[in-house]
Each structure stands twice: as structure tokens, then as C-alpha cells.
Amino acid sequence: MEMPASIRDVAHLEELLSEPSDAAVEAMRQANGDVIVLGVAGKMGPTLARMARRAMDAAGHRHRVIGVSRFSSPDQRRTLEAFGVETIRCDLLDGSAVARLPDVPHVVFMAGRKFGSTGNEPLTWAMNAHLPALVCARYRSSRIVVFSTGNVYGLTRRGRAGSREEDRPAPIGEYAMSCLARERIVQYFSDTSGVSAAILRLNYATEMRYGVLVDLARRVSRREPVDVTMGYFNTIWQGDANAMALAALTHASTPASVVNIAGPEEVSVRGAATELARILDTDVTFTGSEADDALLSNGSRGWALLGPPRVDVERLISWTADWTRRGGDHLGKPTHFESRAGRF
């Protein structure tokens, strides 16, 4: 896929975000069965489901792609259906409703809670630790790709390529702890019931409306100081994260496998903000000083198994600055990547 110099509008953005990689198409060819996406109405779900539909079509299969959510926005449901994704409205914390979901051989489990975790911790734990048990019990005979987060590692020293899958988790804060609980529940069902699963520790997906680079670009454009205490981060084009998640369906295993999904660059907050300011033709100021550690993940295993990223950070910075300069849409959901205490 040839990448454009600029992203025109939301329709163009979502077309790019749902463009399947060769690995995603091959995964749909091998999967050869229906796919259900649980939590499809989140930030990544709509374009992932659309990519699954496109990849399945490219593989020559007409199996169903089904998106499940509470669908608080009817427009989102209609849009998915217009692209050939079937939809089911469901409260996933309702065990009886989960039990009625259709039988499918392939599950992408995206439902979870991060933002608003602080102040409503019980709901966060219900979504991130109780819900996985419902899903594993319902789909114990399916292959399940489970989204998790690099937050389960805690902070690691910069310059060492980031945390690896075999590193001992050290979650900071209840959100990260609840995400590790999600993983442990999936691993328990994999060990005791033979559930085939792949756990994806994502760190961080970005597109033009959301992500660390969007947070930085908006601060720079408003001439707000940029705090560099959390001085480094990973980021990956959401379209690449979508593609890697679909490719992971062929790598679900018993016991459950764990794979990092992260960009190859250890990005400097100061460097990225400076480049954004240059493109936006404005000044940038900084507060704090870079700590020796940050939330960083090593994505090399994921690139080898699931295909390398197609978009590098230089292009992401250029796209983000251009989108911000033109007043493009944004979701209004800052990542809070700078939090060192794990409070979201």
C-alpha cells in the first residue's frame, strides 16, 4: 500500500486504518470462518472490524464479521453495517446475553475500561477481570485474540529496547493491575479448559484523532508547555495494530501466547514535540526533565510473527501535524501517557 503525504478527511483516514496487510489477508484465508469482535464500538474496533471484512473479501471468503457492543451511537452501528459488518447490541457484563451470542470459531476480544478508571474502580475490575471469564467460558472452543496493554510491565529504563514478553509484570495503579488480571484469567482458562488465545500487549496505537502524537500536537498548537518527565514512548499506527491483531488469530495457542504490539522507535517526547512545532510553525516550551525510565515495549516478536509496521513515526508526525493544522476532527480523549502513577 502506498502511503499518501496527507490524509484528506475522516473517510480517507478510516479507509487507510482499515486497509489490510498481507499478513491480515493470509490470516483470514487460513481462519476460513466467522469472526466476532467484542467491544467493537471503541476507538479501534470499527476500523478493525472493517479491516476484517476487507481482508476476508480479499481472501475470497464470505464468512461473517460480527461486531458486538452496547452501541450508544446508532450512527456507528449503521456505518459498520454499511461496510458489511453484522452487528449485535449486547451488554457484555450480562452473562446471559453473552451466552446468547452466536457460535463462531474466531474471537477478537477488545472490550475493556481505561479512562475513568480512577473513581470507579469496581467497574474497571468488572470489565477487565470479570468479563474475560464470561468470554472464555462462552468461547472456550474458539480461537481468541485478547487485547491487553504494555502498562502491565510498569516502567523500564530507556535505551534498552523496552520490556519484552518474558519480563515479569510490574503494574502500577489499579488500571494496569486489572489488565494483568484480565491476562491471568485468560491464561487460567487456557491452562484448564484448553482455550486457544493470543494476548496482545498494545503500546500505544495512534491515528489522527487520538494518540500520544495527537496529545502533543494539540498542546503545541495551543502553545501549552509540554511536560517531558515521561520522556519517551512507543507508538504504532492504528492500522498496523489492527492488522497485527487479525494476523494473531493464526497464532492463538494453548497455553496462551503473549505478544507485544508496539512501534520500533523509542520516541523522545521532546524530539517529537519539537518536530511538530517546526511543521506547525510555532514555538514549544518544556517543563520537567526526562526520567531515566518510561513505559516502553519491545515489539520485535510481534513484527516477526504478525508482520512489520507499514507506517514509521516520521510519517505519523507529519500526518498528525498536517491534520492538526487543518483543524481535523479529534476524539477529545487524551491518552494520559505522561502518568507515572498509573491513574487514568
Please give a structural write-up.
With 344 residues, the chain is of the alpha/beta class. It has a domain at 10-205 and 238-264 and 296-309: NAD(P)-binding Rossmann-like Domain (Rossmann fold, 3-Layer(aba) Sandwich). Helices cover 40% and strands 16% of the residues. It is built from 12 helices and 15 strands. The chain has helices at residues 10-17, 22-31, 45-58, 74-82, 95-99, 121-138, 173-193, 212-221, 238-247, 269-280, 300-306, 313-325, and strands at residues 35-38, 65-69, 86-89, 106-109, 143-149, 156-157, 196-203, 205-206, 226-227, 232-233, 236-237, 257-262, 267-268, 286-287, 293-294. The strands form 5 sheets. Strands 3-2-1-4-5-7-12 form a 7-stranded parallel sheet, sandwiched between helices. Helix 4 (74-82) links the parallel strand 2 (65-69) and strand 3 (86-89). Helix 2 (22-31) crosses helix 3 (45-58), helix 8 packs across helix 10 (269-280) and helix 8 packs across helix 12. It is globular. The two termini are 36 Å apart.
What are the SSEs and their pairings?
Blueprint: H1 10-17, H2 22-31, E1 35-38, H3 45-58, E2 65-69, H4 74-82, E3 86-89, H5 95-99, E4 106-109, H6 121-138, E5 143-149, E6 156-157, H7 173-193, E7 196-203, E8 205-206, H8 212-221, E9 226-227, E10 232-233, E11 236-237, H9 238-247, E12 257-262, E13 267-268, H10 269-280, E14 286-287, E15 293-294, H11 300-306, H12 313-325
Parallel strand pairs: 1-2, 1-4, 2-3, 4-5, 5-7, 7-12, 8-11, 9-14
Antiparallel strand pairs: 6-15, 10-13
Helix pairs in contact: 2-3, 2-9, 3-9, 6-7, 8-10, 8-12, 9-11, 10-12
